[in-house]
Model the fold of this input.
Amino acid sequence: MKTIFHKSDTRGFADHGWLLAKHSFSFAGYHNRNRMHFGALRVLNDDEVAEGIGFPEHPHDNMEIITIPLEGEVAHKDSMGNSATIKAGQIQIMSAGTGIYHSEYNPSSTNKTKLLQIWVFPNKRNVTPRYQEIDVKATQTINEWNQIVSPNPEDQGGWIHQDSWFFLSEMDANTSKTYHFKGELTGIYVFVIEGKLTIDGQILNRRDGMGIVETKKVDFHFTDNTKVLIMEVPLEFNH
Done:
């Protein structure tokens, strides 16, 4: 097993006034040639959006985009005619495909919005754009790997155009659990949203990340009550 450890405070950072953004991989004004992507995982942004403001309409194409609200709400509108507000316990998936425009705002005048925005390179280019919204809270079970994204439309959670599986899980303190890889020639990127865990002797604290390759299973020990996101993605892909 090989690992790459990304301490929380080594991420890129941008303060736009209305937006505080931390980048696990190169994005916008943050460029680190050693952190361009992890396999098909291109972007992992940890954003805090001020009250009553957000991202104005902007374009995307040929990217799978997953938005996970952590606190507050995200109001979304797009060129496909979708208009929705999502909050913690829900996720949003867009296949940008041939091209879309969308906007994202914090609709609250009193509370900040905190969210993860994730981009994954697709395995098919120029697909018809699509939008999906999933309530994942209803299917969450404590101390289990709760799947929220897969390549299969019939699976629990949402789906994307890539051989990738995401798990969003809450684990009790002093719990141990093994993750078994689902794909071939894949790696996992572990992101600790809250709490503390150990993998192969390495401690990961809040907002730390770790990429893991060349193995088919990983043993986790959760020291504290922990919320963790696991993203299994292809290591080799065309884009």
Remarks:
- The CA atoms of residues 188 and 232 lie 4 Å apart.
